[in-house]
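Protein in question passed on here:
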Amino acid sequence: MPQALEIVRGCRGLNLAGCDVVEVSPPYDPSGNTALLGANLLYEMLCVLPGVAYR
């Protein structure tokens, strides 16, 4: 996760057109931890898009 956040935050200032997160399969994620990490990554991705206010 720390490496993924570093990559996403490093994209700030680039002319990005969009972002994507692959779905999580609930049967393989009984704790919901992977879904939470995916949601946090998507939030970070949205924050680096041009024209989006940072936190």
